Amino acid sequence: MDCRAYAPNISAYVDGELSQAEQLVVKHHLEQCSECRQLADDFLHLGENFRANINILPVPYYLTQSVLLSLKREHNKLTHLQMWFTGITIAVMVSPILILFSPLLTTLLHLSYVAFGAIWRMLPALLQIMPVSLLAVGAGTTIAIIVGIYFIRTLMRGISYDEVLS
Amino acid sequence: MIDNLADIVEKVRSGDATAFTTLVNGYSGYVYRTAFALMHNPQDAEDIVQEAFLKVYRSIGQLQESYAFHTWLTRLVTNLCLDRLKKHTPTPVAEISYSASSRDITPDWDQHLMVIEAVKQLNIEHREVLVMREWQGYDYKEIAAMLKIPLGTVKSRIYAARLHLKQILNNSGYIKE
Ligand SMILES: [Zn+2]
Questions:
Q1: What would the CATH number be for the domain defined by B101-177?
Q2: Does this complex have an ipTM over 0.95?
Q3: CATH number given to B1-91
Q4: Contacting residues of A for B106, CB less than 8 Å apart
Q5: Other beta carbons within 10 Å of B140
Q6: Cβ A54–B29 below 8 Å, yes or no?
Q7: Does the distance separating the beta carbons of B49 and A67 come in below 8 Å?
Q8: Which residue of B has its CA nearest to A157?
Q9: Within this chain, do residues A14 and A96 fall inside the same structural domain, yes or no?
Q10: Which CA distances in Å does B41 have to B17, B52, B80, B91, B173?
Q11: Residues A85 and A42 reside in one and the same domain
């Protein structure tokens, strides 16, 4: 075996990534071959050098400040969204009571009840006239529900859309 | 980087803002350097730092053990960088701008620039494995899993990357200490 066959294993050897048998073979060769010993030494130095030089890479002086600032913005955004969500939830929960006490709304409710009842009674006839398939209605409802759940999740997490799905 | 890291992380998890500032102070440099080493673009590196800490802020609750924070953060940063590298080749920046004050940190600044320039010349595949091995200290198995490549490829790629880096440095007249 010539030295070039050893070279890839020498790289793995300095990383301690060889099997015990392979390690012994390389070690034995290194004891005899100064050229390969030099290569192992070079690889080790290269690693130390690499680490040392990344470690002294200058960091922008404003980095920490700008990170903290954007985190603050994120926090405020979240709080804002949560406030809105709580508000809407309370409004939805309280509204039936308000409706019960509002004569105008009671009238409107009554009107819509009557209108809906009329449509409901006419439905068989309407269905015969218009070729509306029940399947389409079902599909539409399902899509509406999925979109609804999606938006509520987004709102509650307060984070961007792609992360909700991830 | 931070002495009582587990304590700090525990405080962050319970919503302590001061502890979070400590965490950002202690780790933003590390995150920036890691991202810079991988992307070799100051703007990308800054973006990664922002993204990384936003992720930390949102999902530190999912961290099982406080003492595992460093490993968790390293992986988070690596994944952010690898994703970004996959999405687009970073725009090459003509010169790395160093401020005058940072020049005083090291006497052999020319040598430093030479090494950084050499790393920049490596292709992304070589740079990735070298940074993961030499800077982040991942073993071959972990690198294979994160890059989704066979173990043998990791071994040969690290070897090729080292040879290439060595060659670039030799050609640029780098003096070994
Ligand atoms: Zn040899």
A1: 1.10.10.10
A2: no
A3: 1.10.1740.10
A4: 56
A5: 21
A6: no
A7: yes
A8: B58
A9: no
A10: 30, 16, 14, 7, 24
A11: no
Report how far ligand 1's centroid is from the alpha carbon of A30 (Å). 7
Domain edges within chain B:
1-91, 101-177
Distance from CA of A82 to the nearest CA of B (A): 15
Do residue A38 and residue A8 come from a single domain?
A: yes
Residue with tokens 């509406």: A144
CB contact under 8 A, B33 and A15: no
The model's pTM: 0.72
Please tell me the distance in Å from B176's CA to the nearest CA on chain A.
9
For residue B86, give the amino acid letter: K
pLDDT in tens, B80-119: 999 998 887 655 554 444 444 444 444 577 888 888 999 9
- A26 and A102 belong to one structural domain: no
A53/B116 touch (CB, cutoff 8 Å), yes or no = yes
Nearest to B174, CA basis, from B103, B112, B98: B112
Find which of B51, B55, B58 to mutate to test the A interface (most A CBs within 10 Å of its CB). B58
Q: Residues A11, A42: contact at Cβ < 8 Å?
A: no
Those residues whose C-beta lies under 8 Å from the C-beta of residue B84, and which sit 6 or more positions away, are: B39, B44, B47, B48, B90
Q: Same domain for A112 and A49?
A: no
Instruction: Tell me the nearest-neighbour CA distance from B159 into chain A, angstroms.
Output: 6
State which amino acid sits at residue A30.
Answer: L
More confident residue, A166 or B32: B32
Higher pLDDT, B133 or B58: B133
Spatial contact of B116 and A53, defined as CB atoms under 8 Å apart: yes
pLDDT tens digits for range B119-173: 999 999 999 999 999 999 999 999 999 999 999 999 999 999 999 999 999 998 8
- Which residues in chain A have their CB less than 8 angstroms from residue B169's CB? 46
A44 and A69 both lie in a single domain = no
Domain with A156 in it: 63-165
Q: Looking at the structure, tell me whether residues A80 and A12 fall in a common domain.
A: no
**pLDDT for A160:** 47
Residues A148 and A70 in one domain: yes
